[in-house]
Amino acid sequence: MIELISSLVPENLAAHAPALLVVVPMLFAPVAAFMPNGRIAWLLSIIATGIALIMAISLVDQVRSIEGGAVLSYAMGGWTPDAGIEFRIDALNSMVLLLVSTIGFLAAIFSWPTVKAEVRDAKRAMFFAAYLVCFTGLTGVASTGDAFNLFVFLEISSIATYVLVALGATRDRRALPAAGNYLLMGTIGASFFVVGVGFLFAATGTLNMAELAVRLQDVQDNKAVLAGYAFIMVGLGIKAAMFPLHQWLPNAYAYSPSFVTMFLAATATKVAIYALVRFLFTVFGLEFAFEGSTLIWILMPMGIAAMIACSFQAVFQTDVRRTLAYSSVAQVGYMLLGISIGTAAGVSAGMFHLVNHALIKGALFMALAGVVLTYQGTSLNDLKGLGRTSPWTMTAFAIGAVSLIGVPLTAGFQSKYALVNALFEHGWWWAVAVVMFSSLLAVVYMGRILEAVFFRAPSNPNKRRQEAPLVILIPLWVLALANLWVGIQGGFVAGLADDAAAALFIGGAS
Amino acid sequence: MLEFVLERGNYWAIIGLMMIGLYISFAATNLIKRLVGLGLFQTSIILFYISLSRIDGGTAPILFGKDYGKKKDHGDGHSSGAEYAGEASDHGADAYNAASGDGGYGYGAEGLENVYSNPLPHVLMLTAIVVGVATLAVGLAIIVRIREAYGTVEADEIRAMDLEVAISEAASEAEESKAGAA
Predict the structure, then answer these.
(1) Which of A28, A96, A435, B174 has the fewest CB atoms nearer than 10 Å to its CB?
(2) Which pTM does this prediction carry?
(3) B73 CB near a chain A CB, below 8 Å?
(4) Closest Cα of chain B to A245: distance in Å?
(5) What are the pLDDT digits (tens) for A269-287?
């Protein structure tokens, strides 16, 4: 299917796909902002993300056209990489871009009913404009090859995100402090990142990531480089909700509009993790002696702490959205654990889980958005008995839930299996026990929700309940079936993740 | 020791400002003050970049004198990999300045008569200023909305109000589920 869609893209457009992927949504954003009617803005955002999706598919095809993965270098504006900004697409970028644009496209389709219910009429066009800006930023982060440009795109997406989160205030005023808190932490994170980039620039005189990777080899012991490394890790750690730096996440996910929660959960932290991986393995590289100890003493313990502590926190939440938010932090722990192994198999498992988690959380939050639509709250009480009145929505939710737990034949199982394999290969058998334990906790917190949904009588029978509208159900089931498809025939996504890891370890610095 | 400190006076000042900003943005309970701290933090980063580009005796990066007309094609890029690294001293800015001192900094700077500051950090900071302004604007707008919704801009009062709401919600929910069970 990839080849088919890719063959439909004309040659001259395909050559500019890296730029179009970012520029098209960016140009659609101001147009959407000036639309008198939210519905037109909605259609525009579907078109923009749809074009981006086609471009991403074309990129994946171009990268896969060469055995071992091609590296596409796109000189923005015709300026060669040494003077200008380079967009650099390898197997890892193309995988993240495909993920972000797929989720972005599905999110755009499903957004209308929830936006209509949760955002005031006058704000809807602006809402979609902010969404497109956020999407632009995320795709920009995932395609740029310039360290400072990455900061700019990171901030473009973040600033749009703060606005989107704050718009949840129509439903619950607690969205405002949550957005304020997110803004504070996010800005500090981005600023840390930019300080780190400044140190690297001071030591090497370049901002191009591939060039940085080459030049950093000579100045490995430079204290400025070490300080830069630390700043970058902390900065991106905040953005990726690495364990002790995740405090902004639960509130931001719990109170923002349902559509925003779904989109953020599936993409924002994933893109930050991509940036983290890019800096860890491409820019600094495993030869960077300092890094080996960070992987073992920082990333691995933090990943494990997240998997246990946040899973426990998820168990004790009464609001389902908060449960899922804490579970997101725990799942980020799985990815960090995979990355911290520092082998190709480990990173591949981490990336595989990154994609699968986006599919899982996308489906779960989409189903919850359907619940919010017909029934204002998302507390455990509100979900009671929904399995009977809205079976389609809740069956998709259940598929997402078992996938999150990691039941065989679902996506979550495949990536956890890959992770466990990589851990055994590396001899970290005790970490396997932690993975199992954390999965058991997932059984507890998701099981509680499923039990309420399918086996409890509705707590308040007078409240109106119904199935989510078709516009929600279709993208929801696309995601739910994607979970099953990856679970039964995981070859495609696992192949993408393997290519991505291979690009990092073999062709990364070239 | 004293010399070591004084030589790097600009960096000490910048780090001092940065830490003050960071502390304010964490410690202040007033949301506006938090944003002030954040602004201070971001501005000190701008200073950091600008002081990186400074070279002793360097002038604004506009070609003049004999250099004028000499370098038309800037796109040919940096040359070999040896210049930028300098001797890998333990102080980044030194390594950078040492390298740039002999004309090896940046792009196409070889063979110039005069010493110029590096223009790249200035350009980067123009972007960073724009980003900072946008963040500040969104932050202030959110605070305005917080003030409308809560009637205060003190973080601890807001937290207390949220806690009250959460407790009452939990209580009503417990009642609801009891009613459902009955």
Answers:
(1) B174
(2) 0.89
(3) no
(4) 13
(5) 999 999 999 998 888 877 7
